[in-house]
Design goal:
21% strand; alpha+beta; Chloramphenicol Acetyltransferase; 456 residues
Protein backbone atom coordinates (compact mmCIF):
# COMPACT_ATOMS: atom_id res chain seq x y z
CA UNK A 1 0.00 0.00 0.00
CA UNK A 2 1.21 3.51 -0.81
CA UNK A 3 0.48 6.94 0.67
CA UNK A 4 -2.83 8.67 -0.06
CA UNK A 5 -3.80 12.26 0.57
CA UNK A 6 -6.50 12.52 3.22
CA UNK A 7 -9.92 13.37 1.87
CA UNK A 8 -11.07 16.89 2.86
CA UNK A 9 -13.47 15.81 5.60
CA UNK A 10 -10.89 13.40 7.04
CA UNK A 11 -8.41 16.27 7.14
CA UNK A 12 -10.99 18.42 8.92
CA UNK A 13 -11.45 15.76 11.62
CA UNK A 14 -7.68 15.44 11.98
CA UNK A 15 -7.32 19.19 12.58
CA UNK A 16 -10.36 19.54 14.84
CA UNK A 17 -8.85 17.35 17.54
CA UNK A 18 -7.50 18.70 20.82
CA UNK A 19 -6.39 16.92 23.99
CA UNK A 20 -9.71 17.81 25.64
CA UNK A 21 -11.77 16.82 22.59
CA UNK A 22 -10.35 13.72 20.94
CA UNK A 23 -11.99 12.90 17.61
CA UNK A 24 -12.31 9.14 17.80
CA UNK A 25 -15.28 6.82 17.41
CA UNK A 26 -15.76 3.94 19.80
CA UNK A 27 -17.66 0.70 20.17
CA UNK A 28 -17.87 -1.45 23.28
CA UNK A 29 -18.58 -5.09 22.51
CA UNK A 30 -19.51 -7.31 25.45
CA UNK A 31 -18.83 -11.01 24.94
CA UNK A 32 -20.10 -14.09 26.70
CA UNK A 33 -16.99 -15.99 27.88
CA UNK A 34 -16.31 -19.69 28.40
CA UNK A 35 -13.56 -19.18 30.99
CA UNK A 36 -11.76 -16.50 33.03
CA UNK A 37 -8.87 -16.59 30.53
CA UNK A 38 -11.09 -15.79 27.54
CA UNK A 39 -10.16 -12.10 27.63
CA UNK A 40 -6.42 -12.79 27.47
CA UNK A 41 -6.98 -15.21 24.59
CA UNK A 42 -9.07 -12.57 22.79
CA UNK A 43 -6.25 -10.03 23.14
CA UNK A 44 -3.80 -12.48 21.58
CA UNK A 45 -6.18 -13.11 18.68
CA UNK A 46 -6.75 -9.41 18.05
CA UNK A 47 -3.02 -8.66 17.98
CA UNK A 48 -2.28 -11.57 15.65
CA UNK A 49 -5.07 -10.66 13.24
CA UNK A 50 -4.39 -6.91 13.28
CA UNK A 51 -0.92 -7.52 11.87
CA UNK A 52 -2.51 -8.89 8.70
CA UNK A 53 -5.02 -6.07 8.06
CA UNK A 54 -3.48 -3.34 5.86
CA UNK A 55 -6.05 -0.73 6.91
CA UNK A 56 -4.93 -1.05 10.53
CA UNK A 57 -1.29 -0.48 9.64
CA UNK A 58 -1.95 3.01 8.20
CA UNK A 59 -0.76 6.07 10.08
CA UNK A 60 -1.63 9.70 9.33
CA UNK A 61 1.21 12.12 8.77
CA UNK A 62 1.07 15.86 8.19
CA UNK A 63 2.75 16.86 4.95
CA UNK A 64 3.22 19.80 2.63
CA UNK A 65 2.16 18.14 -0.59
CA UNK A 66 3.06 20.15 -3.73
CA UNK A 67 -0.54 20.01 -4.95
CA UNK A 68 -2.17 20.60 -1.57
CA UNK A 69 -0.37 22.76 0.99
CA UNK A 70 -1.32 21.90 4.56
CA UNK A 71 -2.45 18.38 3.68
CA UNK A 72 -1.92 15.09 5.46
CA UNK A 73 -1.38 11.63 4.06
CA UNK A 74 -2.45 8.17 5.07
CA UNK A 75 0.52 5.82 4.69
CA UNK A 76 1.82 2.47 5.99
CA UNK A 77 3.53 2.82 9.38
CA UNK A 78 7.19 1.88 8.97
CA UNK A 79 7.41 -0.12 12.23
CA UNK A 80 3.87 -1.27 12.99
CA UNK A 81 3.53 -3.25 16.22
CA UNK A 82 0.01 -4.49 17.05
CA UNK A 83 0.94 -4.66 20.74
CA UNK A 84 0.97 -0.86 20.76
CA UNK A 85 -2.72 -0.95 19.82
CA UNK A 86 -4.20 -4.07 21.46
CA UNK A 87 -4.11 -3.62 25.23
CA UNK A 88 -5.18 -6.11 27.90
CA UNK A 89 -6.46 -4.58 31.13
CA UNK A 90 -7.04 -5.91 34.63
CA UNK A 91 -10.46 -7.47 35.36
CA UNK A 92 -13.20 -4.92 36.00
CA UNK A 93 -16.70 -5.06 37.47
CA UNK A 94 -17.95 -2.15 35.32
CA UNK A 95 -17.31 -2.12 31.57
CA UNK A 96 -19.02 1.25 31.08
CA UNK A 97 -16.91 3.00 33.72
CA UNK A 98 -13.73 1.70 32.09
CA UNK A 99 -14.99 2.65 28.62
CA UNK A 100 -15.66 6.20 29.76
CA UNK A 101 -12.17 6.55 31.18
CA UNK A 102 -10.57 5.17 28.02
CA UNK A 103 -12.73 7.24 25.65
CA UNK A 104 -11.26 10.37 27.23
CA UNK A 105 -7.74 9.43 26.17
CA UNK A 106 -6.63 10.76 22.76
CA UNK A 107 -5.08 8.27 20.37
CA UNK A 108 -1.36 8.44 19.66
CA UNK A 109 -1.16 10.58 16.51
CA UNK A 110 2.32 9.26 15.63
CA UNK A 111 0.99 5.71 15.15
CA UNK A 112 -1.96 4.23 13.24
CA UNK A 113 -4.83 5.96 15.10
CA UNK A 114 -6.79 3.05 16.55
CA UNK A 115 -6.84 0.92 19.70
CA UNK A 116 -8.55 -2.21 21.00
CA UNK A 117 -8.83 -2.39 24.78
CA UNK A 118 -9.66 -5.84 26.14
CA UNK A 119 -11.49 -5.70 29.48
CA UNK A 120 -11.92 -9.02 31.29
CA UNK A 121 -14.97 -9.12 33.55
CA UNK A 122 -14.52 -9.80 37.25
CA UNK A 123 -17.35 -12.34 36.99
CA UNK A 124 -15.18 -14.62 34.85
CA UNK A 125 -17.97 -15.25 32.35
CA UNK A 126 -17.81 -12.03 30.30
CA UNK A 127 -15.21 -9.81 28.73
CA UNK A 128 -15.48 -6.64 26.65
CA UNK A 129 -13.47 -5.03 23.87
CA UNK A 130 -13.49 -1.27 23.39
CA UNK A 131 -12.50 -0.37 19.84
CA UNK A 132 -11.38 3.20 19.18
CA UNK A 133 -10.85 4.58 15.66
CA UNK A 134 -9.90 8.15 14.84
CA UNK A 135 -12.58 9.81 12.72
CA UNK A 136 -9.88 10.74 10.20
CA UNK A 137 -9.22 7.02 9.72
CA UNK A 138 -12.80 5.78 9.61
CA UNK A 139 -16.45 6.72 9.67
CA UNK A 140 -18.95 4.31 11.24
CA UNK A 141 -19.13 1.90 8.29
CA UNK A 142 -15.38 1.91 7.75
CA UNK A 143 -14.77 1.32 11.47
CA UNK A 144 -17.14 -1.65 11.34
CA UNK A 145 -15.23 -3.06 8.37
CA UNK A 146 -11.89 -2.73 10.16
CA UNK A 147 -13.21 -4.24 13.38
CA UNK A 148 -14.83 -7.11 11.49
CA UNK A 149 -11.44 -7.95 9.98
CA UNK A 150 -10.06 -8.89 13.42
CA UNK A 151 -13.16 -10.67 14.70
CA UNK A 152 -14.09 -14.23 13.76
CA UNK A 153 -15.43 -14.74 10.22
CA UNK A 154 -19.06 -13.69 10.10
CA UNK A 155 -21.91 -16.18 9.98
CA UNK A 156 -23.32 -14.45 6.88
CA UNK A 157 -22.37 -11.87 4.24
CA UNK A 158 -19.95 -9.15 5.28
CA UNK A 159 -21.37 -5.61 5.62
CA UNK A 160 -21.65 -3.64 2.40
CA UNK A 161 -18.76 -1.33 1.69
CA UNK A 162 -15.02 -1.71 1.26
CA UNK A 163 -13.18 -4.71 2.58
CA UNK A 164 -10.40 -4.05 5.03
CA UNK A 165 -7.87 -5.93 2.92
CA UNK A 166 -8.22 -4.28 -0.46
CA UNK A 167 -8.57 -0.56 -0.98
CA UNK A 168 -8.59 1.02 -4.45
CA UNK A 169 -6.61 4.21 -5.01
CA UNK A 170 -8.25 7.56 -4.43
CA UNK A 171 -9.34 9.96 -7.13
CA UNK A 172 -6.23 12.05 -6.51
CA UNK A 173 -3.98 9.07 -7.17
CA UNK A 174 -5.94 8.06 -10.25
CA UNK A 175 -5.49 11.54 -11.68
CA UNK A 176 -1.76 11.59 -10.89
CA UNK A 177 -1.39 8.12 -12.37
CA UNK A 178 -2.93 9.29 -15.61
CA UNK A 179 -5.92 6.96 -15.64
CA UNK A 180 -8.21 9.98 -15.81
CA UNK A 181 -7.28 12.31 -18.62
CA UNK A 182 -7.00 16.02 -17.90
CA UNK A 183 -9.13 16.86 -20.94
CA UNK A 184 -11.97 14.89 -19.40
CA UNK A 185 -11.35 15.75 -15.78
CA UNK A 186 -11.07 19.54 -15.94
CA UNK A 187 -14.52 20.33 -17.47
CA UNK A 188 -16.14 17.97 -14.97
CA UNK A 189 -14.28 19.66 -12.14
CA UNK A 190 -15.41 23.08 -13.33
CA UNK A 191 -19.05 21.96 -13.37
CA UNK A 192 -18.63 20.43 -9.92
CA UNK A 193 -17.03 23.64 -8.62
CA UNK A 194 -19.88 25.83 -9.87
CA UNK A 195 -22.49 23.45 -8.52
CA UNK A 196 -20.64 23.19 -5.23
CA UNK A 197 -20.43 26.97 -4.86
CA UNK A 198 -24.19 27.27 -5.16
CA UNK A 199 -24.72 24.46 -2.67
CA UNK A 200 -22.25 26.07 -0.25
CA UNK A 201 -24.16 29.37 -0.34
CA UNK A 202 -27.41 27.51 0.29
CA UNK A 203 -25.92 25.63 3.26
CA UNK A 204 -24.43 28.81 4.68
CA UNK A 205 -27.76 30.64 4.50
CA UNK A 206 -29.56 27.72 6.14
CA UNK A 207 -26.95 27.64 8.89
CA UNK A 208 -27.49 31.32 9.64
CA UNK A 209 -31.26 30.83 9.87
CA UNK A 210 -30.94 27.69 12.03
CA UNK A 211 -29.53 29.66 14.94
CA UNK A 212 -32.53 31.99 15.14
CA UNK A 213 -34.99 31.54 18.01
CA UNK A 214 -33.20 28.45 19.33
CA UNK A 215 -34.00 27.52 22.92
CA UNK A 216 -31.28 25.26 24.23
CA UNK A 217 -30.17 24.16 27.70
CA UNK A 218 -26.91 24.88 29.52
CA UNK A 219 -26.92 21.18 30.49
CA UNK A 220 -26.07 20.33 26.87
CA UNK A 221 -23.07 22.64 26.63
CA UNK A 222 -19.91 22.67 28.66
CA UNK A 223 -16.38 23.96 28.91
CA UNK A 224 -13.76 21.42 27.91
CA UNK A 225 -12.65 19.21 30.82
CA UNK A 226 -11.09 16.33 28.90
CA UNK A 227 -13.10 13.81 30.94
CA UNK A 228 -15.64 11.30 29.65
CA UNK A 229 -18.44 9.13 30.96
CA UNK A 230 -20.27 6.49 29.00
CA UNK A 231 -23.52 4.63 29.57
CA UNK A 232 -25.47 2.07 27.62
CA UNK A 233 -29.14 1.28 27.17
CA UNK A 234 -30.71 -1.71 25.40
CA UNK A 235 -34.12 -1.29 23.72
CA UNK A 236 -36.21 -4.14 22.32
CA UNK A 237 -36.65 -3.54 18.58
CA UNK A 238 -40.18 -4.94 18.85
CA UNK A 239 -41.11 -2.05 21.15
CA UNK A 240 -39.80 0.43 18.58
CA UNK A 241 -41.84 -1.25 15.85
CA UNK A 242 -44.98 -1.20 18.01
CA UNK A 243 -44.67 2.57 18.29
CA UNK A 244 -43.83 3.02 14.62
CA UNK A 245 -46.77 0.93 13.43
CA UNK A 246 -49.15 2.83 15.67
CA UNK A 247 -48.09 6.37 14.81
CA UNK A 248 -46.26 6.08 11.47
CA UNK A 249 -42.83 7.28 10.50
CA UNK A 250 -39.59 5.31 10.54
CA UNK A 251 -37.64 3.44 13.18
CA UNK A 252 -35.14 6.31 13.19
CA UNK A 253 -37.95 8.83 13.76
CA UNK A 254 -39.08 6.85 16.81
CA UNK A 255 -35.54 6.63 18.21
CA UNK A 256 -34.96 10.37 17.80
CA UNK A 257 -38.32 10.89 19.52
CA UNK A 258 -37.12 8.67 22.37
CA UNK A 259 -34.02 10.85 22.71
CA UNK A 260 -36.16 14.01 22.83
CA UNK A 261 -38.43 12.53 25.51
CA UNK A 262 -35.50 11.23 27.55
CA UNK A 263 -33.87 14.68 27.47
CA UNK A 264 -37.12 16.19 28.73
CA UNK A 265 -37.28 13.75 31.65
CA UNK A 266 -33.63 14.21 32.49
CA UNK A 267 -33.69 18.01 32.36
CA UNK A 268 -36.83 18.04 34.49
CA UNK A 269 -35.20 15.81 37.14
CA UNK A 270 -32.15 18.08 37.19
CA UNK A 271 -34.33 21.15 37.60
CA UNK A 272 -32.84 22.72 34.48
CA UNK A 273 -36.16 23.50 32.79
CA UNK A 274 -37.75 21.83 29.79
CA UNK A 275 -38.90 24.84 27.74
CA UNK A 276 -36.16 24.24 25.19
CA UNK A 277 -35.75 23.06 21.58
CA UNK A 278 -32.13 21.90 21.29
CA UNK A 279 -30.74 21.25 17.83
CA UNK A 280 -29.78 17.66 17.10
CA UNK A 281 -27.31 16.92 14.31
CA UNK A 282 -28.30 13.63 12.64
CA UNK A 283 -25.45 12.49 10.34
CA UNK A 284 -26.35 10.96 6.98
CA UNK A 285 -23.89 8.73 5.14
CA UNK A 286 -23.06 9.81 1.60
CA UNK A 287 -20.87 6.80 0.93
CA UNK A 288 -21.30 5.32 -2.52
CA UNK A 289 -19.43 2.51 -4.29
CA UNK A 290 -16.22 3.67 -5.99
CA UNK A 291 -16.32 7.15 -4.49
CA UNK A 292 -13.40 9.48 -5.02
CA UNK A 293 -12.21 8.83 -1.46
CA UNK A 294 -13.19 5.24 -0.68
CA UNK A 295 -11.32 5.19 2.62
CA UNK A 296 -12.57 8.53 3.85
CA UNK A 297 -15.60 10.01 5.54
CA UNK A 298 -18.52 10.81 3.26
CA UNK A 299 -21.04 12.46 5.53
CA UNK A 300 -23.80 15.02 5.40
CA UNK A 301 -26.51 15.53 7.99
CA UNK A 302 -29.92 16.77 9.03
CA UNK A 303 -30.43 19.41 11.68
CA UNK A 304 -33.52 18.73 13.79
CA UNK A 305 -34.93 20.83 16.59
CA UNK A 306 -35.89 18.39 19.31
CA UNK A 307 -39.33 19.28 20.78
CA UNK A 308 -38.22 18.84 24.38
CA UNK A 309 -40.69 21.55 25.35
CA UNK A 310 -43.65 19.42 24.22
CA UNK A 311 -45.20 17.51 27.16
CA UNK A 312 -47.30 15.03 25.16
CA UNK A 313 -45.18 12.04 24.04
CA UNK A 314 -47.07 11.25 20.82
CA UNK A 315 -47.24 14.92 19.81
CA UNK A 316 -43.52 15.14 20.51
CA UNK A 317 -42.94 12.14 18.26
CA UNK A 318 -45.17 13.63 15.53
CA UNK A 319 -43.09 16.83 15.67
CA UNK A 320 -39.89 14.85 15.23
CA UNK A 321 -41.39 12.92 12.33
CA UNK A 322 -42.48 16.15 10.60
CA UNK A 323 -39.04 17.70 11.06
CA UNK A 324 -37.32 14.61 9.63
CA UNK A 325 -39.74 14.57 6.67
CA UNK A 326 -38.86 18.19 5.89
CA UNK A 327 -35.16 17.33 5.96
CA UNK A 328 -35.64 14.31 3.71
CA UNK A 329 -37.69 16.36 1.23
CA UNK A 330 -34.86 18.90 1.00
CA UNK A 331 -32.25 16.12 0.78
CA UNK A 332 -28.99 15.62 2.68
CA UNK A 333 -27.08 17.91 0.34
CA UNK A 334 -28.81 21.07 1.51
CA UNK A 335 -29.71 22.75 4.73
CA UNK A 336 -27.77 23.59 7.88
CA UNK A 337 -27.07 19.94 8.65
CA UNK A 338 -25.00 19.57 5.49
CA UNK A 339 -22.10 21.69 6.74
CA UNK A 340 -19.76 18.70 6.53
CA UNK A 341 -20.08 18.89 2.73
CA UNK A 342 -18.36 22.27 2.80
CA UNK A 343 -15.11 20.50 3.69
CA UNK A 344 -14.72 19.57 0.03
CA UNK A 345 -14.61 23.27 -0.89
CA UNK A 346 -11.90 24.25 1.61
CA UNK A 347 -8.24 23.91 0.59
CA UNK A 348 -5.98 21.80 2.78
CA UNK A 349 -4.24 24.85 4.21
CA UNK A 350 -7.65 26.26 5.14
CA UNK A 351 -8.36 23.15 7.22
CA UNK A 352 -5.01 23.50 8.94
CA UNK A 353 -5.38 27.21 9.70
CA UNK A 354 -9.14 27.19 10.28
CA UNK A 355 -9.21 24.19 12.61
CA UNK A 356 -9.23 26.29 15.82
CA UNK A 357 -12.08 28.42 14.49
CA UNK A 358 -14.07 25.38 13.43
CA UNK A 359 -13.71 23.88 16.90
CA UNK A 360 -15.42 26.90 18.37
CA UNK A 361 -18.22 26.77 15.78
CA UNK A 362 -19.68 23.41 16.79
CA UNK A 363 -21.49 24.88 19.80
CA UNK A 364 -23.12 27.47 17.55
CA UNK A 365 -24.15 24.84 14.99
CA UNK A 366 -25.82 22.12 17.08
CA UNK A 367 -26.42 21.08 20.68
CA UNK A 368 -26.36 17.29 20.64
CA UNK A 369 -25.29 14.62 18.16
CA UNK A 370 -27.71 11.75 17.48
CA UNK A 371 -26.18 9.24 15.10
CA UNK A 372 -26.97 5.74 13.86
CA UNK A 373 -24.03 3.34 13.45
CA UNK A 374 -24.52 0.35 11.09
CA UNK A 375 -24.01 -3.19 12.37
CA UNK A 376 -24.44 -6.47 10.52
CA UNK A 377 -27.50 -8.57 11.18
CA UNK A 378 -25.36 -11.67 11.65
CA UNK A 379 -23.70 -12.73 14.89
CA UNK A 380 -20.28 -11.34 15.81
CA UNK A 381 -17.75 -13.52 17.64
CA UNK A 382 -14.18 -13.38 18.87
CA UNK A 383 -12.39 -16.62 19.61
CA UNK A 384 -15.75 -18.35 19.42
CA UNK A 385 -17.23 -16.10 22.10
CA UNK A 386 -20.45 -14.36 20.94
CA UNK A 387 -21.15 -10.65 21.24
CA UNK A 388 -24.14 -10.19 23.54
CA UNK A 389 -24.15 -6.37 23.61
CA UNK A 390 -22.48 -3.71 21.51
CA UNK A 391 -22.62 0.01 22.35
CA UNK A 392 -21.45 2.62 19.80
CA UNK A 393 -19.85 5.85 21.00
CA UNK A 394 -19.57 9.10 19.02
CA UNK A 395 -16.93 11.81 19.48
CA UNK A 396 -17.88 14.80 21.59
CA UNK A 397 -17.52 18.16 19.88
CA UNK A 398 -15.99 21.10 21.67
CA UNK A 399 -18.47 22.96 23.86
CA UNK A 400 -20.97 20.10 23.93
CA UNK A 401 -21.76 17.81 26.81
CA UNK A 402 -23.54 14.87 25.20
CA UNK A 403 -23.53 12.63 22.13
CA UNK A 404 -25.93 9.75 21.42
CA UNK A 405 -25.19 6.80 19.11
CA UNK A 406 -27.63 4.04 18.15
CA UNK A 407 -27.06 0.58 16.68
CA UNK A 408 -29.48 -2.27 15.97
CA UNK A 409 -28.06 -5.72 16.63
CA UNK A 410 -29.82 -9.06 16.87
CA UNK A 411 -33.28 -7.71 17.63
CA UNK A 412 -32.23 -4.97 20.03
CA UNK A 413 -31.23 -1.33 19.72
CA UNK A 414 -28.10 -0.49 21.67
CA UNK A 415 -27.84 3.14 22.76
CA UNK A 416 -24.37 4.44 23.55
CA UNK A 417 -24.21 7.69 25.54
CA UNK A 418 -21.00 9.72 25.77
CA UNK A 419 -20.83 12.78 27.98
CA UNK A 420 -18.36 15.24 29.43
CA UNK A 421 -17.59 13.67 32.79
CA UNK A 422 -17.69 16.93 34.73
CA UNK A 423 -20.73 18.45 33.00
CA UNK A 424 -22.87 15.30 33.19
CA UNK A 425 -22.08 13.42 36.41
CA UNK A 426 -25.58 11.90 36.29
CA UNK A 427 -25.36 10.17 32.91
CA UNK A 428 -26.90 7.04 34.41
CA UNK A 429 -30.05 9.05 35.09
CA UNK A 430 -30.26 9.98 31.42
CA UNK A 431 -29.85 6.28 30.52
CA UNK A 432 -32.74 5.45 32.86
CA UNK A 433 -34.78 8.21 31.22
CA UNK A 434 -34.28 6.55 27.82
CA UNK A 435 -35.74 3.29 29.17
CA UNK A 436 -38.66 5.12 30.79
CA UNK A 437 -39.43 7.05 27.61
CA UNK A 438 -39.64 3.86 25.55
CA UNK A 439 -42.13 2.44 28.03
CA UNK A 440 -44.18 5.63 27.91
CA UNK A 441 -44.29 5.65 24.11
CA UNK A 442 -45.29 1.98 23.94
CA UNK A 443 -48.14 2.61 26.38
CA UNK A 444 -49.25 5.79 24.63
CA UNK A 445 -49.10 4.14 21.19
CA UNK A 446 -51.19 1.19 22.39
CA UNK A 447 -53.79 3.57 23.78
CA UNK A 448 -53.82 5.56 20.54
CA UNK A 449 -54.36 2.56 18.27
CA UNK A 450 -58.12 3.01 18.51
CA UNK A 451 -57.67 6.29 16.62
CA UNK A 452 -56.04 4.41 13.72
CA UNK A 453 -52.41 4.11 12.52
CA UNK A 454 -50.53 7.35 12.10
CA UNK A 455 -52.69 9.33 14.52
CA UNK A 456 -50.52 11.48 16.80
Amino acid sequence: MTADLLAPLDLAFWNLETAEHPMHLGALGVFSAHSPTAGAHAADLLAARAAGVPGLRMRIRDTWHPLSFGAAVREPAPSFDPLHHVLLHAPTPDFQAEAGRLMGRPLDRTRPPWEAHVLPGEDGVTFAVLFKFHHALADGLRALTLAAAVLDPMEGPAPRGLTAREEPPTGVRRLLNGTVGLATALPARLRDTLSGAGRALDIGASLAVSGLAVRSSPALTSDATGTRRTAGVVIDVDDVHRVRKAVGGTVNDVLIGVVAGALRRWLDERGDGTDVTPRALVPVSQRRPRTAHPQGNRLSGYLVRLPVHQPEPLVRLADVRAAMDRNKDAGPGRGAGAVALLADHVPALGHRVGGPLARQAARLWFDVLVTSVPLPGVGLRLGGHPVVEVFPYAPLARGQALAVALSSYRGRVHVGLVADGAAVPDLDRLAAAVTAEVETLVTAAAAGLEDGPGAP
